[in-house]
Amino acid sequence: MSVWDQLVGQEQAVGQLRKAAASELPPHAWLFTGPPGSGRSTAARALAAALLCEKPDPAERGCGECKSCRTAMSGAHADVTNFATENVQIKIEEARDLVVKAQDRPSVGRWRVMIVEDADRMPERTSNVLLKAIEEPPPHTIWLLCAPSPVDVLVTIRSRCRAITLKVPTAEEVAELLARRDGVDPETAEQAARLAQGHIGIARRLALYPEAKARREDVVRLPLGLGGISSAVAAADRLISTAEAEATADAEERNDQEKADLLVTLGAPESGRVPPTIKAAVRRLEEDQKRRAKRIQVDTLDRFLIDLSTFYRDVLTLQLKTGSRLINHHLERELSDYALNSSAERTLEQIDTINLTRRRISTNVSPRLAFEAMAASLILRH
Predict the structure, then answer these.
(1) What is residue 334's three-state secondary structure?
(2) Is 0.85 surpassed by the pTM of this model?
Protein backbone atom coordinates (compact mmCIF):
# COMPACT_ATOMS: atom_id res chain seq x y z
CA MET A 1 0.00 0.00 0.00
CA SER A 2 1.50 3.36 -1.03
CA VAL A 3 1.70 6.28 1.37
CA TRP A 4 -0.99 8.03 -0.68
CA ASP A 5 -3.51 5.29 0.15
CA GLN A 6 -3.57 6.62 3.73
CA LEU A 7 -5.13 9.89 2.50
CA VAL A 8 -8.79 8.95 2.30
CA GLY A 9 -11.00 11.08 0.05
CA GLN A 10 -8.21 13.57 -0.75
CA GLU A 11 -7.75 12.98 -4.49
CA GLN A 12 -7.08 16.62 -5.35
CA ALA A 13 -4.50 17.03 -2.58
CA VAL A 14 -2.81 13.75 -3.48
CA GLY A 15 -2.41 14.94 -7.06
CA GLN A 16 -0.57 18.08 -5.89
CA LEU A 17 1.61 16.14 -3.46
CA ARG A 18 2.55 13.47 -6.02
CA LYS A 19 3.63 16.17 -8.43
CA ALA A 20 5.76 17.87 -5.78
CA ALA A 21 7.39 14.60 -4.70
CA ALA A 22 8.33 13.85 -8.30
CA SER A 23 9.93 17.28 -8.73
CA GLU A 24 13.65 17.84 -8.32
CA LEU A 25 12.97 21.19 -6.62
CA PRO A 26 9.77 20.96 -4.57
CA PRO A 27 8.48 24.02 -2.67
CA HIS A 28 10.45 24.57 0.54
CA ALA A 29 7.44 25.26 2.80
CA TRP A 30 3.93 23.79 2.97
CA LEU A 31 0.82 24.48 5.04
CA PHE A 32 -1.66 21.62 5.45
CA THR A 33 -5.07 22.78 6.62
CA GLY A 34 -8.39 21.06 7.19
CA PRO A 35 -10.93 20.22 9.91
CA PRO A 36 -10.01 17.80 12.71
CA GLY A 37 -9.93 14.28 11.35
CA SER A 38 -9.15 15.30 7.77
CA GLY A 39 -5.64 13.84 8.05
CA ARG A 40 -3.35 16.90 8.13
CA SER A 41 -0.44 15.18 9.89
CA THR A 42 -0.91 12.02 7.82
CA ALA A 43 -0.67 14.10 4.63
CA ALA A 44 2.49 15.79 5.91
CA ARG A 45 4.11 12.45 6.74
CA ALA A 46 3.07 11.05 3.36
CA LEU A 47 4.77 13.93 1.56
CA ALA A 48 7.87 13.52 3.75
CA ALA A 49 7.97 9.81 2.90
CA ALA A 50 7.54 10.46 -0.83
CA LEU A 51 10.30 13.10 -0.82
CA LEU A 52 12.67 10.58 0.78
CA CYS A 53 11.44 7.51 -1.13
CA GLU A 54 14.18 5.27 -2.53
CA LYS A 55 12.41 4.51 -5.82
CA PRO A 56 14.49 5.86 -8.73
CA ASP A 57 11.42 6.55 -10.86
CA PRO A 58 9.93 9.91 -9.71
CA ALA A 59 6.43 8.70 -10.61
CA GLU A 60 6.74 5.86 -8.07
CA ARG A 61 7.84 7.97 -5.11
CA GLY A 62 5.76 7.28 -2.04
CA CYS A 63 5.74 3.54 -2.69
CA GLY A 64 5.15 2.73 0.98
CA GLU A 65 7.39 -0.34 0.68
CA CYS A 66 10.98 0.93 0.90
CA LYS A 67 12.73 1.52 4.23
CA SER A 68 12.57 5.31 3.86
CA CYS A 69 8.81 5.31 3.26
CA ARG A 70 8.14 3.00 6.20
CA THR A 71 10.36 4.88 8.66
CA ALA A 72 9.10 8.30 7.55
CA MET A 73 5.48 7.26 8.04
CA SER A 74 6.24 5.76 11.46
CA GLY A 75 8.22 8.81 12.60
CA ALA A 76 11.54 6.95 12.82
CA HIS A 77 13.37 8.38 9.78
CA ALA A 78 16.65 10.10 10.65
CA ASP A 79 15.95 13.02 8.30
CA VAL A 80 12.37 13.70 9.43
CA THR A 81 11.68 15.80 12.52
CA ASN A 82 8.05 15.34 13.55
CA PHE A 83 7.22 17.92 16.22
CA ALA A 84 3.90 17.84 18.08
CA THR A 85 3.60 19.88 21.27
CA GLU A 86 2.05 18.33 24.35
CA ASN A 87 1.47 21.76 25.87
CA VAL A 88 -1.33 24.26 25.33
CA GLN A 89 1.06 26.38 23.22
CA ILE A 90 4.32 25.82 21.37
CA LYS A 91 7.02 27.45 23.45
CA ILE A 92 9.58 29.83 22.00
CA GLU A 93 12.42 27.55 23.18
CA GLU A 94 10.90 24.66 21.21
CA ALA A 95 10.74 26.83 18.08
CA ARG A 96 14.40 27.78 18.47
CA ASP A 97 15.34 24.11 18.76
CA LEU A 98 13.49 23.43 15.50
CA VAL A 99 15.35 26.25 13.74
CA VAL A 100 18.69 24.79 14.86
CA LYS A 101 17.67 21.28 13.79
CA ALA A 102 16.61 22.57 10.36
CA GLN A 103 20.21 23.60 9.68
CA ASP A 104 21.46 20.01 9.82
CA ARG A 105 22.25 18.37 6.52
CA PRO A 106 20.31 15.19 5.66
CA SER A 107 22.07 12.09 6.94
CA VAL A 108 20.65 9.41 4.62
CA GLY A 109 18.17 11.04 2.22
CA ARG A 110 17.91 13.99 -0.15
CA TRP A 111 16.05 16.28 2.21
CA ARG A 112 15.72 17.26 5.84
CA VAL A 113 11.97 17.48 6.48
CA MET A 114 10.58 19.48 9.42
CA ILE A 115 6.97 18.61 10.30
CA VAL A 116 5.24 20.94 12.77
CA GLU A 117 1.84 19.68 13.88
CA ASP A 118 -0.53 22.10 15.64
CA ALA A 119 1.14 25.13 14.08
CA ASP A 120 -1.97 27.02 15.19
CA ARG A 121 -0.69 26.70 18.77
CA MET A 122 2.18 29.08 18.05
CA PRO A 123 1.72 32.57 19.57
CA GLU A 124 3.03 35.47 17.50
CA ARG A 125 6.44 35.65 19.21
CA THR A 126 7.01 31.95 18.60
CA SER A 127 5.88 32.25 14.97
CA ASN A 128 8.38 35.06 14.41
CA VAL A 129 11.19 32.75 15.53
CA LEU A 130 10.30 30.31 12.74
CA LEU A 131 9.61 32.99 10.14
CA LYS A 132 13.20 33.56 9.02
CA ALA A 133 13.92 29.84 8.87
CA ILE A 134 10.83 29.23 6.72
CA GLU A 135 11.44 32.30 4.60
CA GLU A 136 15.06 31.41 3.78
CA PRO A 137 15.66 27.77 4.71
CA PRO A 138 18.85 25.88 3.85
CA PRO A 139 18.62 24.40 0.32
CA HIS A 140 18.18 20.89 1.73
CA THR A 141 15.35 21.68 4.21
CA ILE A 142 11.58 21.48 3.67
CA TRP A 143 9.03 22.70 6.25
CA LEU A 144 5.59 21.07 6.57
CA LEU A 145 3.18 22.91 8.89
CA CYS A 146 -0.27 21.67 9.96
CA ALA A 147 -3.19 23.78 11.23
CA PRO A 148 -7.02 23.69 11.14
CA SER A 149 -7.24 26.72 8.81
CA PRO A 150 -4.92 29.27 7.16
CA VAL A 151 -6.12 32.08 9.46
CA ASP A 152 -4.79 30.11 12.46
CA VAL A 153 -1.24 30.76 11.26
CA LEU A 154 0.57 34.10 11.19
CA VAL A 155 -0.05 35.75 7.82
CA THR A 156 3.66 36.28 7.17
CA ILE A 157 4.24 32.52 7.53
CA ARG A 158 1.27 31.30 5.51
CA SER A 159 2.11 33.69 2.66
CA ARG A 160 5.41 31.82 2.26
CA CYS A 161 3.89 28.33 2.23
CA ARG A 162 2.31 26.23 -0.50
CA ALA A 163 -1.26 25.59 0.68
CA ILE A 164 -2.84 22.14 0.77
CA THR A 165 -6.48 22.11 1.85
CA LEU A 166 -7.95 18.83 3.06
CA LYS A 167 -11.59 17.90 3.57
CA VAL A 168 -13.30 15.55 5.97
CA PRO A 169 -13.70 12.19 4.20
CA THR A 170 -17.11 10.58 3.95
CA ALA A 171 -18.17 7.88 6.38
CA GLU A 172 -18.08 5.37 3.52
CA GLU A 173 -14.46 6.26 2.72
CA VAL A 174 -13.41 5.99 6.37
CA ALA A 175 -15.21 2.66 6.77
CA GLU A 176 -13.45 1.28 3.71
CA LEU A 177 -10.07 2.33 5.14
CA LEU A 178 -10.79 0.71 8.52
CA ALA A 179 -11.77 -2.53 6.82
CA ARG A 180 -8.77 -2.52 4.47
CA ARG A 181 -6.05 -1.26 6.81
CA ASP A 182 -7.17 -2.44 10.25
CA GLY A 183 -9.18 -5.55 9.41
CA VAL A 184 -12.40 -4.20 10.99
CA ASP A 185 -15.57 -6.00 9.91
CA PRO A 186 -17.68 -3.85 7.52
CA GLU A 187 -20.64 -3.33 9.88
CA THR A 188 -18.47 -2.18 12.81
CA ALA A 189 -16.38 -0.02 10.48
CA GLU A 190 -19.49 1.68 9.06
CA GLN A 191 -20.93 2.42 12.50
CA ALA A 192 -17.61 3.73 13.86
CA ALA A 193 -17.09 5.98 10.83
CA ARG A 194 -20.59 7.42 11.16
CA LEU A 195 -20.28 8.05 14.90
CA ALA A 196 -16.87 9.69 14.38
CA GLN A 197 -18.31 11.95 11.65
CA GLY A 198 -15.44 11.16 9.28
CA HIS A 199 -12.64 11.62 11.83
CA ILE A 200 -10.31 8.75 10.92
CA GLY A 201 -8.42 8.56 14.22
CA ILE A 202 -11.57 8.58 16.35
CA ALA A 203 -13.30 6.10 14.06
CA ARG A 204 -10.38 3.70 14.47
CA ARG A 205 -10.52 4.08 18.26
CA LEU A 206 -14.28 3.43 18.34
CA ALA A 207 -13.89 0.39 16.11
CA LEU A 208 -10.99 -1.22 17.96
CA TYR A 209 -11.50 -0.26 21.62
CA PRO A 210 -14.85 -1.16 23.25
CA GLU A 211 -14.15 1.14 26.24
CA ALA A 212 -13.92 4.15 23.89
CA LYS A 213 -17.27 3.29 22.36
CA ALA A 214 -18.85 2.80 25.79
CA ARG A 215 -17.53 6.15 26.99
CA ARG A 216 -18.97 7.91 23.95
CA GLU A 217 -22.33 6.22 24.54
CA ASP A 218 -22.36 7.52 28.12
CA VAL A 219 -21.71 11.07 26.88
CA VAL A 220 -24.35 10.99 24.15
CA ARG A 221 -27.00 9.64 26.52
CA LEU A 222 -26.34 12.46 29.02
CA PRO A 223 -29.38 14.61 27.97
CA LEU A 224 -31.72 11.67 28.62
CA GLY A 225 -30.82 11.68 32.32
CA LEU A 226 -31.04 15.42 33.01
CA GLY A 227 -34.11 15.54 35.24
CA GLY A 228 -33.07 18.43 37.45
CA ILE A 229 -30.17 20.42 38.86
CA SER A 230 -28.83 17.58 41.02
CA SER A 231 -28.67 15.17 38.09
CA ALA A 232 -27.07 17.88 35.92
CA VAL A 233 -24.32 18.51 38.48
CA ALA A 234 -23.75 14.77 38.85
CA ALA A 235 -23.50 14.32 35.07
CA ALA A 236 -21.01 17.18 34.77
CA ASP A 237 -18.95 15.76 37.63
CA ARG A 238 -18.87 12.35 35.93
CA LEU A 239 -17.48 13.79 32.69
CA ILE A 240 -14.90 15.93 34.47
CA SER A 241 -13.78 12.96 36.57
CA THR A 242 -13.38 10.83 33.46
CA ALA A 243 -11.19 13.47 31.80
CA GLU A 244 -9.12 13.90 34.97
CA ALA A 245 -8.65 10.14 35.22
CA GLU A 246 -7.43 9.99 31.63
CA ALA A 247 -4.88 12.75 32.26
CA THR A 248 -3.77 11.06 35.50
CA ALA A 249 -3.36 7.69 33.81
CA ASP A 250 -1.16 9.28 31.16
CA ALA A 251 0.88 11.05 33.85
CA GLU A 252 1.42 7.88 35.87
CA GLU A 253 2.67 6.11 32.78
CA ARG A 254 5.12 8.81 31.68
CA ASN A 255 6.06 11.33 34.37
CA ASP A 256 8.25 9.20 36.64
CA GLN A 257 10.14 7.71 33.70
CA GLU A 258 10.70 11.16 32.17
CA LYS A 259 12.07 12.46 35.48
CA ALA A 260 14.36 9.44 35.90
CA ASP A 261 15.66 9.81 32.33
CA LEU A 262 16.31 13.53 32.89
CA LEU A 263 18.29 12.89 36.09
CA VAL A 264 20.43 10.30 34.31
CA THR A 265 21.02 12.63 31.37
CA LEU A 266 22.08 15.48 33.69
CA GLY A 267 24.30 13.20 35.74
CA ALA A 268 22.44 13.74 39.02
CA PRO A 269 24.09 12.12 42.07
CA GLU A 270 22.36 9.04 43.47
CA SER A 271 22.47 10.54 46.97
CA GLY A 272 23.42 13.76 48.69
CA ARG A 273 22.80 17.33 47.65
CA VAL A 274 21.34 17.93 44.21
CA PRO A 275 22.96 20.88 42.33
CA PRO A 276 20.70 23.94 41.76
CA THR A 277 20.93 23.58 37.95
CA ILE A 278 19.50 20.06 38.14
CA LYS A 279 16.75 21.19 40.51
CA ALA A 280 15.80 23.95 38.05
CA ALA A 281 15.68 21.45 35.15
CA VAL A 282 13.44 19.13 37.19
CA ARG A 283 11.09 22.02 38.02
CA ARG A 284 10.82 22.92 34.32
CA LEU A 285 10.02 19.30 33.51
CA GLU A 286 7.32 19.17 36.19
CA GLU A 287 5.79 22.40 34.85
CA ASP A 288 5.73 20.92 31.33
CA GLN A 289 4.08 17.78 32.69
CA LYS A 290 1.38 19.84 34.39
CA ARG A 291 0.70 21.73 31.14
CA ARG A 292 0.55 18.45 29.24
CA ALA A 293 -1.96 17.02 31.74
CA LYS A 294 -4.11 20.13 31.32
CA ARG A 295 -4.07 19.79 27.55
CA ILE A 296 -5.04 16.11 27.74
CA GLN A 297 -7.94 17.00 30.03
CA VAL A 298 -9.12 19.90 27.85
CA ASP A 299 -8.83 17.84 24.65
CA THR A 300 -10.81 15.00 26.24
CA LEU A 301 -13.54 17.38 27.42
CA ASP A 302 -13.70 19.02 24.00
CA ARG A 303 -14.25 15.60 22.42
CA PHE A 304 -17.04 14.94 24.92
CA LEU A 305 -18.71 18.19 23.84
CA ILE A 306 -18.41 17.30 20.15
CA ASP A 307 -20.02 13.91 20.83
CA LEU A 308 -22.74 15.53 22.96
CA SER A 309 -23.58 17.99 20.19
CA THR A 310 -24.39 15.07 17.86
CA PHE A 311 -27.36 14.20 20.10
CA TYR A 312 -28.89 17.63 19.59
CA ARG A 313 -28.07 17.69 15.89
CA ASP A 314 -29.99 14.44 15.52
CA VAL A 315 -32.87 15.90 17.54
CA LEU A 316 -32.92 18.96 15.27
CA THR A 317 -32.87 16.70 12.19
CA LEU A 318 -36.02 14.98 13.47
CA GLN A 319 -37.74 18.24 14.45
CA LEU A 320 -37.10 19.83 11.05
CA LYS A 321 -37.93 16.58 9.22
CA THR A 322 -34.94 16.98 6.89
CA GLY A 323 -34.75 13.24 6.18
CA SER A 324 -31.00 13.20 6.77
CA ARG A 325 -29.53 10.06 8.31
CA LEU A 326 -29.05 10.27 12.06
CA ILE A 327 -25.50 10.14 13.44
CA ASN A 328 -26.72 8.21 16.48
CA HIS A 329 -29.08 5.99 14.52
CA HIS A 330 -29.08 3.35 17.28
CA LEU A 331 -30.83 5.88 19.59
CA GLU A 332 -33.59 6.75 17.12
CA ARG A 333 -36.45 5.92 19.51
CA GLU A 334 -35.00 7.98 22.39
CA LEU A 335 -34.16 10.84 20.02
CA SER A 336 -37.69 10.84 18.60
CA ASP A 337 -39.26 11.00 22.08
CA TYR A 338 -36.92 13.83 23.06
CA ALA A 339 -37.68 15.75 19.86
CA LEU A 340 -41.43 15.57 20.51
CA ASN A 341 -40.99 17.11 23.96
CA SER A 342 -38.93 20.06 22.76
CA SER A 343 -38.79 22.57 19.92
CA ALA A 344 -36.28 23.36 17.20
CA GLU A 345 -35.68 26.78 18.79
CA ARG A 346 -34.83 25.15 22.13
CA THR A 347 -32.54 22.62 20.42
CA LEU A 348 -30.62 25.42 18.70
CA GLU A 349 -30.19 27.09 22.10
CA GLN A 350 -28.77 23.85 23.49
CA ILE A 351 -26.30 23.54 20.61
CA ASP A 352 -25.21 27.15 21.22
CA THR A 353 -24.69 26.31 24.91
CA ILE A 354 -22.38 23.43 24.01
CA ASN A 355 -20.40 25.61 21.58
CA LEU A 356 -20.06 28.30 24.26
CA THR A 357 -18.72 25.70 26.70
CA ARG A 358 -16.14 24.59 24.12
CA ARG A 359 -14.88 28.16 23.93
CA ARG A 360 -14.87 28.55 27.69
CA ILE A 361 -12.78 25.47 28.47
CA SER A 362 -10.11 26.65 26.02
CA THR A 363 -9.52 29.63 28.34
CA ASN A 364 -8.72 29.74 32.05
CA VAL A 365 -12.32 29.09 33.11
CA SER A 366 -12.72 26.17 35.55
CA PRO A 367 -13.84 23.19 33.40
CA ARG A 368 -15.94 21.86 36.27
CA LEU A 369 -17.89 25.11 36.65
CA ALA A 370 -18.28 25.41 32.87
CA PHE A 371 -19.67 21.87 32.60
CA GLU A 372 -22.01 22.31 35.56
CA ALA A 373 -23.40 25.51 34.04
CA MET A 374 -23.81 23.77 30.69
CA ALA A 375 -25.54 20.72 32.12
CA ALA A 376 -27.99 22.93 34.04
CA SER A 377 -28.75 24.88 30.85
CA LEU A 378 -29.41 21.65 28.90
CA ILE A 379 -32.23 20.48 31.19
CA LEU A 380 -35.32 19.96 29.08
CA ARG A 381 -38.00 22.54 29.79
CA HIS A 382 -41.57 21.29 29.88
Answers:
(1) helix
(2) no
